[in-house]
Amino acid sequence: MKIGALTIDTPFVLAPLAGYTDSPMRRIARRFGASMVWTEMVSAEGAVRGAEATLKLLEFSDEERPIAFQLFGARPESMAGAARRAEGLSPDLIDLNVGCPARKVVRGGSGSALMADPDLLSAVASALVGAVDLPVTAKIRSGWDERSINAAEVAQRLEACGVAAVIVHPRTRAQGFKGEADWSVIGRVREAVGIPVIGSGDVREPAQALAMMEATSCDAVMIGRGAVGNPWLFRRAVRMWSGDPDPGPPSMRERIEVAAGHLDLMVDSKGERRGVLEMRKHLVAYLRGAPGAARLRSELVTMEGHANVRERLERELEAQG
User: Fold this and answer.
1) Taking the domain 252-320, which CATH number applies?
2) Catalytic residues, which ones?
3) Alpha-carbon gap, residue 133 to 140, rounded angstroms
4) Which residue spans of the chain are classified as CATH 1.10.1200.80?
């Protein structure tokens, strides 16, 4: 798949997830086969002001390339300024968030609120495309609610503005992340535009990623919540897409080894206290569904100190034999 001049080797990419897809998670996803990663969404207003916390979200290593910076905002001039500032940090593309359903984002006219205001969306997208030389993509939803499913029309507008690819999460803003994703919306967008279409939604197993491609003819699949604590999902999907058998889910030993490495990256990236605290949700995800892991999970989410958590994981590895 090509997005502008950028070539994506395999059709499985990591979604932007607020509070999750930081540099450590992105590095691990790339190691396990994600062909591209997205940052957490970043406020255009914050980027224009040079807010330290905002710019921190845009820090990355070369190991993460190709990487997309995702911006949200509703003012064309701010989006243009943020895009120029972001381009100076040398990502591989810029992504426009047209999908976030969070009340605080929508209240300001950003995120999925733009699905209900196509004229403003066109102005924002045009400003973004005109401000940078990098490819620009956009992540959209089905529509505002079930009475206004307009993803295909929105995608056509975005294509007319010069957007190089569109990512479709086929839930409405009203649904949030509840209910089932309607993959048929992805198929309708694929039929409506000539640019690449990336499907997203309800992919938690590699077979589901391949099924989405078969059902919708989308060019790639973006995986978000299904990849939290489960980077093996990318490796398995790539193997199956290549015609090889599914190697199956990881063993308990593999889960713990990767979780321990993720912990180290978190501490290196964020410092000990913050790194350990933010790692707790990942540890729960790594161990979810593992036989006999309930007690280990309950211990890990209350432990403090990098050395203590690391030692507990190593003891569990020894117990695995």
Assistant:
1) 1.10.1200.80
2) 100
3) 22
4) 252-320
The CA distances from residue 204 to 26, 145, 301, in Å, are: 17, 24, 24
Residue range(s) occupied by CATH 3.20.20.70 in the chain:
2-241
CATH for the 2-241 domain, from 3.40.190.150, 3.20.20.70, 3.40.50.1100, 3.40.50.300: 3.20.20.70
Under DSSP, is residue 116 helix (H, G, I), strand (E, B) or coil? helix
Structure tokens at 239: 């193997």
Residue (of 276, 293, 262, 183) closest to 24 by Cα position: 262
Q: Are strands 6-7 and 37-43 parallel, antiparallel or unpaired?
A: unpaired
Structure tokens at 264: 């180290």
* Alpha carbons 253 and 251: distance in angstroms, whole number: 5
Residues 6+ apart with CB under 8 A from 111: 72, 97, 98, 99, 100, 101, 102, 105, 173
Q: For tokens 């029309």, name the residue.
A: 153
pLDDT at 33 over 70: yes
Model confidence pLDDT, tens digit, residues 145-196: 999 999 999 999 999 999 999 999 999 999 988 989 999 999 999 999 999 9
Comparing CA positions, the residue from 240, 256, 260 lying closest to residue 248 is 240
Q: What is the pLDDT of residue 216?
A: 98
